[in-house]
TrEMBL record:
Pfam families: Metallophos
InterPro entries xref list: Calcineurin-like_PHP, CNP_phosphodiesterase-III, Metallo-depent_PP-like
Family note: Belongs to the cyclic nucleotide phosphodiesterase class-III family.
Residues in Calcineurin-like phosphoesterase domain copies: 1-187
Cross-referenced Gene3D superfamilies: 3.60.21.10
Keywords from the named record: Hydrolase, Iron, Metal-binding
Protein name: 3',5'-cyclic adenosine monophosphate phosphodiesterase CpdA
Species in which this protein is naturally found: Streptomyces graminofaciens
Classification via SUPFAM superfamilies: Metallo-dependent phosphatases
Length: 252
């Protein structure tokens, strides 16, 4: 099974954001053998605007079942309205969603906090995750926007998932979870969390450089550490039902 993992397209976040997101989409849709699913781990619209989501909807029109969660740049009501067509539902609550595909269950949690950049899984989301895991048959990937650990990148480490022990407790209770997929950091990275592979997808819109790669002014902001020229990339997860192998693919 092949799952594409795309993240941080940030439509409206740079003048190349649309072209880059569409380049990744076209690469995926042009594969001689299509992927089985696409997961997009947040930061879809840079300013959370309806117009940005309308463009994003086209830029994420993948030829495979697709699941998308919000990130810290997203706005739940607009996200729902354009991407999920959730008319009439409570627009402000967390957007938690499930995709079942060929025996694999993908659970995408909403780790965004309206008006803030750090992440949190609220009680409703933790309860939802517990109940979805309790009824899942077979292996599960759990995804969200915010990494639950520090990555050695000061600007995102300061706004990572808070209280990660809440997530860890749930994951350790369910041994059918095989991977945790996140975004937010705009760099391809991997680690272990709760005894599971933790894969951070690179950002499509930009790449966040490490402090040791840059000469930064004394007073620096995240923007000084973002490289908008490096090409967009995403991850291809090969999964055999037990083991995950993750290939990062740059799209020129
Ligand atoms: Fe982002």
């Amino acid at each position: 099974m092949l799952v594409a993992h795309v993240s941080d397209i940030h439509i409206g976040g740079s003048k190349q954001s649309v072209e880059r997101a569409m380049r990744v989409r076209d690469y995926l849709n042009g594969l001689p053998t299509p992927v089985d699913a696409v997961v997009v781990t947040g930061d879809i619209a840079d300013h959370g605007l309806v117009e940005e989501y309308e463009i994003a909807r086209e830029a994420m029109r993948y030829a495979a079942p697709t699941l998308v969660c919000p990130g810290n740049h997203d706005s739940r009501p607009e996200f729902r309205k354009v991407l999920l067509d959730h008319v009439g539902r409570d627009g402000a609550g967390p957007v938690n969603q499930t995709l079942r595909i060929d025996g694999l269950t993908i659970l995408l949690c909403d780790s965004s906090i309206p008006g803030r950049h750090d992440g949190h899984l609220d009680d409703a989301t933790i309860d939802w995750l517990e109940s979805e895991l309790a009824r899942a048959q077979g292996p599960v990937f759990v995804g969200m926007h915010h990494p639950p650990i520090a990555l050695g990148l000061p600007s995102v480490d300061a706004i990572r998932l808070n209280h990660p022990e809440r997530l860890e407790r749930v994951l350790r209770r369910h041994d059918q979870v095989k991977a945790v997929l996140v975004g937010h950091a705009h760099t391809a990275a991997s680690a272990v969390f709760a005894g599971l592979p933790l894969v951070v997808a690179p950002g499509v819109v930009s790449t966040l450089m490490m402090p040791s790669e840059l000469v930064l002014p004394e007073e620096w902001s995240e923007d000084d550490a973002l490289d908008f020229e490096r090409p967009p990339a995403f991850v291809l997860h090969v999964f055999d039902g037990e083991r995950l192998v993750s290939h990062t693919r740059v799209v020129l």
